[in-house]
Design brief:
The complex is a heterodimer of chains A (265) and B (408).
Chain A: H1 35-47, E1 50-56, E2 59-64, H2 69-79, E3 84-93, H3 94-97, E4 99-108, E5 113-122, E6 127-128, H4 137-148, E7 152-153, H5 182-192, H6 198-201
Parallel strand pairs in A: 2-5, 6-7
Antiparallel strand pairs in A: 1-2, 3-4, 4-5
Helix pairs in contact in A: 1-2
Chain B: E1 22-27, E2 39-45, E3 48-55, H1 63-68, H2 72-79, H3 87-102, H4 108-137, H5 140-161, H6 183-205, H7 209-215, H8 223-228, H9 234-237, H10 245-248, H11 269-295, H12 313-318, H13 320-331, E4 339-347, E5 350-358, E6 366-370, H14 372-383, H15 389-399, H16 403-407
Antiparallel strand pairs in B: 1-2, 2-3, 4-5, 5-6
Helix pairs in contact in B: 2-3, 3-4, 4-5, 4-11, 4-15, 5-6, 6-11
The chains are: A alpha/beta (265), B mainly alpha (408).
């Protein structure tokens, strides 16, 4: 029987967990504890539905409805002086609640404050682009689409950013394996040689740590190296890196004449 | 047999029109002045750029995905490969983010050592920037001089951590080593020498007619553009906005040292060049203040937090309990509290931010790397329009982009 593996989350899991261990929480402070943030929140609350708001590690976190994102960021930019969108991306919660959690990390240079706007969208839900408010969302949204497959409407050039245009799948999803899925194994073979060469060349080995014993082309057979293309051999190859008599320029090491230093010179 | 459509990258299918002087040029990804694997699709009208489409991803290694599959300490050497020109600033940004996540206070000596390394990295990064930028524009001499001085700084870093490119010289909770004997004297000799070298560079470039013609009025970034496109670091300060995270949201001991934040209001490449030179001087100023501070600190270099950080090496080798803790931390990894942080630091390129979402597991649930160059490259779409083809190289060089952190 195959061992059970969680298909919804193929990320690495800790091999041991204390079943009584309860992870502590980073404290959440009330928004009232900071006058500037309280004022910003009051402006937002007058216009939009705020689901939750708290301060964590000095930054205000505001949960909103995903449909308000453009209008709310416009308000933050115009009325609350949050002039820079530093970062924008998503977190995959599909396995837990079939949702993506999005965050917009904002900065106000005049107030020296950082604010994080967060919202949830369902898997197939379309998000409005905030490119019209902050242009830094341009590539951030493209990367998010590339990595999570979150569809954005109103973006001027919605295209994959980091992965090739014809790539299959979205790499940062929790269902996507670290070394790529089946399509990734054949991507370059299909692209360069064609599908008919699959049998001849074989799938791409994407695990850089894998050591193949029969691989004579790379240095996998340490201690049993053979000439390029030759059959692998069981015999140990002998290496002598320093010739007894010494080479012209290189002096051979003599243990008796070497000195061990006590500390770094 | 070869198929007709095989081995034909799709971009070759773009029509290379030559009507009315319109042309599409592929710049890169193997262009020596692209500073990495940047591919720019430039639409030209004569020699003027009418549209620029940067295409990135040629160095994409999926670091964010890797982070989700690594324990926190395991990921730290990976951050070296982001901005490999100043690797310590990435190590530090990550370490600070994790320390903020678990709420850890770092010993004072570790803070001083970290700042020494960070400022040294800023100098090497700026020297590298100056060298390659000048080489792109055509000034070969500067390249040789700047690389010589950069070499001395790399020697110092090598003396400290043994590596020249991928330092991994910071640990979560402190630093792995104390400064070796005589290191500060060597550093002192270096920082006393460097201002004269910077003067030499400026003597070669400041009033140089070619340099000024290539840089002045080229690559204009208005303050509105800079803010809207999420610029940071010299790109933001080059547009007249005085924003340096070291000054405005001080971390480590940046609130205890005196330094100025240079700002350029000309918004062009020449202004940003002057800015970089001034920033190196400010780094020297910080380094000079740090050296006496080092002697006043207590010898601890790593925080005492057995739940999260391994004890110093001597203790692990002598104390049974420390060894057990170390074993657990290496095999299982630390489990930070549940929550999320976004921690920005001022790397030589700009705002380097780490967003970490932790669910109390040894692996981060989500880690987002906010790289300054990523947003500066996005700005190229708007910045290059209206410029000449020959200036594209100067502008890319001036923007100080590093592909390790753009593609991640």
């Amino acid at each position: 029987m195959r061992p059970y593996s969680d298909k919804q989350n193929v990320q690495k899991k800790p091999y041991y967990s204390d079943r009584y261990f309860v992870a502590p929480q980073i404290p959440k402070e009330a928004v009232e504890s900071d006058a500037v943030f309280a004022q910003d929140l009051a402006i937002l609350q007058a216009k939009f539905e705020i689901k939750e708001a708290y301060i964590q590690r000095g930054q205000l976190v505001v949960y909103i409805d995903a449909r308000d994102n453009v209008a709310l960021l416009q308000t933050l930019k115009d009325e609350c002086a949050y002039n820079i969108l530093s970062e924008h991306s998503a977190i995959d919660w599909l396995a837990k609640s079939n949702e993506f959690e999005l965050f917009y990390q904002l900065l106000s240079t005049s107030k020296r404050k950082r604010l994080r706007v967060k919202c949830f969208i369902h898997e197939k839900e379309v998000l409005q682009s905030v490119y019209g408010v902050y242009k830094s969302a341009d590539w951030a949204e493209r990367e998010m689409y590339d990595m999570f497959g979150i569809a954005i409407s109103g973006h001027p050039y919605m295209k994959r950013l980091l992965m090739p245009d014809d790539w299959f799948g979205h790499p940062l999803l929790k269902t996507y394996p670290l070394h790529g899925d089946e399509a990734a194994r054949w991507y370059e073979i299909d692209k360069i040689f064609g599908k008919e060469y699959r049998d001849i060349i074989g799938p791409e080995e994407r695990d850089s740590a894998r050591v193949d014993e029969n691989d004579t082309y790379r240095f996998a057979r340490l201690g049993h190296e053979v000439p390029f293309g030759a059959e692998p051999s069981r015999e140990k190859t002998f290496h002598d890196y320093q010739e007894e008599s010494g080479v012209t320029i290189v002096k051979s090491l003599k243990k008796s004449e070497s000195k061990i230093v006590k500390e770094r010179p | 047999m070869q198929k007709v459509n095989r081995l034909k990258p799709f971009f070759e299918n773009i029509a290379f029109e030559r009507e009315d002087n319109h042309m599409i040029v592929n710049f890169g990804p193997q262009h020596p002045s692209a500073h990495g694997q940047l591919r720019l699709i430039l639409e030209l009208d004569g020699e003027k750029v009418t549209k620029a489409t940067p295409d990135i991803g040629y160095l994409h290694r999926g670091m964010e995905k890797m982070a989700e599959n690594m324990i926190y300490n395991e990921f730290l050497p990976t951050t070296d490969r982001m901005d490999y020109i100043a690797a310590t600033s990435n190590n530090y940004g990550f370490a600070l983010a994790v320390e903020t996540l678990i709420g850890l206070e770092v010993p004072r000596r570790a803070k001083v050592i970290r700042m020494l390394l960070l400022e040294l990295n800023r100098i090497t990064s700026h020297l590298f920037w100056l060298a390659t930028h000048a080489l792109d524009v055509g000034a070969m001499t500067i390249f040789l001089y700047a690389f010589r001085e950069r070499e001395y700084a790399l020697d110092l870093i090598e003396d400290y951590c043994g590596a020249r490119l991928t330092h991994s010289s910071v640990r979560i909770g402190g630093v792995p080593l104390d400064l070796p004997k005589g290191w500060l004297e060597k550093l002192n000799a270096y920082v006393n020498r460097l201002p004269y070298d910077i003067e030499d560079y400026e003597g070669l470039l400041d009033q140089n007619r070619i340099w000024k013609m290539r840089l002045e009025g080229v690559g204009i970034v208005t303050p509105e553009q800079a803010q809207s496109w999420g610029c940071s670091g010299p790109m933001l300060r080059g547009s007249g906005i005085a924003w340096d995270i070291r000054k405005e949201e001080p971390y480590e001991l940046y609130d205890e040292v005196e330094f100025d934040v240079p700002v350029s209001t000309t918004c062009d490449s020449y202004g940003r060049y002057k800015l970089h030179m001034e920033e190196m001087r400010q780094s020297i100023r910080i380094l000079k203040q740090l050296m006496p501070m080092y002697d006043e600190t207590a010898p601890e270099i790593i925080a005492h937090a057995p739940q999260y950080v391994s004890a110093p090496k001597e203790q692990i080798m002598t104390q049974n309990y420390s060894l057990m803790q170390h074993f657990v931390l290496v095999t299982q990894g630390m489990r930070p509290p549940v929550g999320e942080v976004y921690v920005p630091t001022e790397s030589p390129k700009g705002e380097l931010g780490f967003y970490i979402n932790s669910q109390g597991d040894p692996y981060p649930y989500r880690l987002k790397l906010r790289a300054p160059s990523f947003f500066h490259t996005a700005l190229l779409q708007e910045m290059l329009v209206g410029e000449y083809l020959a200036d594209v190289v100067a502008i890319i060089g001036n923007a100080n982009i590093v592909f390790g952190e753009i593609d991640r």
